[in-house]
Amino acid sequence: MNEFLSTMAKEDRLTYELSMLYKQWGYKEYRMAKFEEYSFYSDNRDFLSSNNILAFNNSDGRLMALKPDITLSIVKNAKLTDALTKLYYNESVFRMTESSNDFKEIKQTGVEVLGKIDSYLITEVLSLAAKSLKTIDSNFILSVSHMAFIPSLLAEMKISENAKKELITCIKGKNLHDLNNICKRCGVDDSKTELLSKLANINGKLLQTLPELISLASNDEMKKACDELEYIATALSSSDIADKLYIDLSVLSNIEYYNGIIFQGYVEKAPKAVLSGGRYDKLAAKLRENTQAIGFAVYLDNLNLYYRQEKEFDSDILILFNSDGGGVSLHSLVESFIEKGFSVRVEHNIPEGYKAKNIYSFDNGVLREVTSC
Amino acid sequence: MLNIALPKGRLGDKVYELFASIGYDCSEIYSDNRKLVFENKENGVRYLLVKPSDVAIYIAHGAADIGVVGKDILEEGNFDIYELLDLNLGKCNMCVAAPNDYIEDFDRPLRVATKFVNIAKNYYISLNREIEIIKLNGSIEIAPILGLSDVIVDIVESGKTLEENNLRVYEKIMPISARLIANKSSYKFKSDDIDTLMEKLKKELAK
């Protein structure tokens, strides 16, 4: 089985391995239809990463959308009970891509937990996110942030919403020079500007950086967040992923939907984050009563590009045969090879660039090894 | 190995001098050839010389780890990158310029000729002014002279080109200078190398 997995494309192998991981942790697979009513997504447009939704009319004239997002649909439709709802999914989303300015089907897998979220569950989801990244590449980093820090500090500043937006852009880009200029222009206290700069710039391993963050916590919200991070750090301290968790408060999500822990995952060969998630009680509360939620998505598209599988051979055996030379016994011969565990391709000519461990010719019932091609 | 994308041209030369002065030299870069990639294994740098407007694209796609680019290009595009440092090099201003005798007419949309479509759009949105954009790729100064546009939005360094074409700065939009940028993923995995380079740069710039 493992040998078979190693020959699969990265995306396909990951879909399988991640599903296994989530199942082991007791998560149930959730499947859904490819489309849903357009109005549902247009009502929650701010939550979507892009404003464009691929829509069409169904047979009774209703306007439908090809799913641009999975989380929204799960939060709205998943059956909730007194127990926690722990789900994972492998689905496609349809989004506008920046590069081609056209819609693209993007494979996504992810985890969502709905119910009463506590520190243990946050730790479990964070640990699953780290293990998901490890499945992609052992050299990974999970950047952990908390919505209690920068958003709460910005809320204390008496500046316009536009200025706040400009500051958020600077923070996301670790652009401290422009951040300082904007704060100066808007008359923000020097002490608050300094704290904002420090928080935006903080970047280090969770265990080692937490004391610094605790010393910077200036309000109750931040202090509570530090307690939460401390719980996670202690719970994961002996785990092999502890070293891969970094504090990076420049990771920010939409404040209308997210609260608490948020995170983004990076693997060495991909230039962009391949995982993102967090706690979204505010979105959950909008769609379901008394529900809290946390989850993450892994973006599997493009991973084949960054993790190109260099195959030594396309198949173990290539059999060249000429129809005129008779092939009555060829099928049973191929089957016997396959039963022995070889991969076999039958061809009339060698396909361009094809690499096989052994090449044979089959002529009049006789199999001969071809030494040169 | 740090992959550094530099803009070909005057700014790139200045930036290379700066990087070389803090220990990231790569003398091969001076050899007179058409190579675009230069490497110095000893100090762990590889320089890529690319078109100035492409630097941020290389960085965003991870083809280079860090690079230097004008703020105008960052403002015009929307790149998911880190902007780590203002190098205070290549200083100039993004301006609205108009003929010397220009008087703005507020009862019709303003015709704006520019290479920087997004910067111009965003600026006039902030003023709630209706505009009509004429996208040009060069010799922008000619547009108002020929009556193609009322004003232009462009980079002004010394103001000499404007002066020679009977134009003047009408409004300043923003100051521009060279910025050190980094790919987000590279910055995570090579943060020690990049932070060291940044610290050295800061020290050198403060001199």
The span between the termini of chain A is 32 Å
Total count of helical runs of at least 4 residues of chain A: 14
User: On the 0-100 scale, what is the average pLDDT of chain B?
Assistant: 93
Going by helix content, strand content and strand pairing, the class of chain A is: alpha+beta
Instruction: Give the strand order, joined by hyphens, for the main sheet of chain A.
Output: 1-5-6-12-11-10-7-9-8
Q: Compute the number of structural domains of chain A.
A: 2
What does the model show?
The complex is a heterodimer of chains A (373) and B (207). By secondary structure, chain A is an alpha+beta fold. Chain A has two domains: 2-147 and 202-306, Bira Bifunctional Protein, Domain 2 (BirA Bifunctional Protein, domain 2); 315-372. Helices cover 38% and strands 25% of the residues of chain A. Chain A has 14 helices and 16 strands. In chain A, helix 7 runs antiparallel to helix 8 (176-185). By secondary structure, chain B is an alpha/beta fold. Chain B is elongated, with a radius of gyration of 19 Å. The mean pLDDT of chain B is 93. The chains are: A alpha+beta (373), B alpha/beta (207).
Summary of the model, kept short:
The complex is a heterodimer of chains A (373) and B (207). Chain A is built from 14 helices and 16 strands.
Question: Secondary-structure blueprint of this entry?
Answer:
The complex is a heterodimer of chains A (373) and B (207).
Chain A: H1 2-7, H2 10-24, E1 28-29, E2 35-37, H3 38-43, E3 55-57, E4 63-66, H4 71-77, E5 85-96, E6 103-115, H5 119-136, E7 140-146, H6 150-156, H7 161-172, H8 176-185, H9 190-201, E8 203-205, H10 206-216, H11 220-236, E9 245-248, E10 261-267, E11 275-279, H12 281-287, E12 292-299, H13 303-306, E13 315-321, H14 330-339, E14 344-347, E15 356-363, E16 366-369
Parallel strand pairs in A: 1-5, 7-9, 13-14, 13-15
Antiparallel strand pairs in A: 2-4, 3-4, 5-6, 6-12, 7-10, 8-9, 10-11, 11-12, 15-16
Chain B: E1 2-7, H1 10-21, E2 37-40, E3 45-50, H2 55-60, E4 66-70, H3 71-76, E5 82-86, E6 92-99, E7 110-114, H4 117-126, E8 131-135, H5 142-145, E9 151-156, H6 160-164, E10 167-176, E11 178-182, H7 184-189, H8 191-206
Parallel strand pairs in B: 1-3, 1-4, 7-8, 7-9
Antiparallel strand pairs in B: 2-3, 4-11, 5-11, 6-9, 6-10
